[in-house]
Amino acid sequence: MAERLLASVREDIGRADTKAAILLSGAVAVLAVLVSDGSTLPPADGSGAGPLLIAAALCWAAGLLMLVAVILPRTRIGADRTLLRDLSAHASVEHLLARLVASRENVTGWLLDQASVHGAVLAAKYRWLRLGVGSLALGGLLALLSELW
Fold first, then answer.
1. Backbone phi, then psi, for 99, in 5-degree steps?
2. Which end of the chain lies in a sparser environment, N or C, as judged by fewer CB atoms within 10 Å?
3. In terms of Cα–Cα distance, which of 143, 131, 141 is closest to 65?
4. Model pTM score
5. What range(s) does the Pycsar effector protein domain occupy (predicted)?
């Protein structure tokens, strides 16, 4: 059961990364289409369109950065409970073997601990995903309002 739980959390992490990558590609494509249009910014004639467009661009950029944050690997969350810190620090073979032997003593506990760490990573990824989508939506809404202003 613990193995299935860990596998399920790992699959969910992969799905979150895929969602973020697709959204990031779409957001960058929309930005590329808008920039390649060749149109200029609205004139500064005292209307509220300029500040709205600037706010929209800032929200869109923040959304892009948040989606990038989803895709980036999580190396701090639970690094002491996994082998990640040991592997990245080029730990000795003896140290790695000692960690593996310790995990073999209570396999179910170790698997549940790994699932807990991966669950925290998954929660962080979905938090950034929700914030990124919200920021992109707000940026799009502000851009539309600047055109109607």
1. -65, -40
2. N
3. 131
4. 0.81
5. 2-144
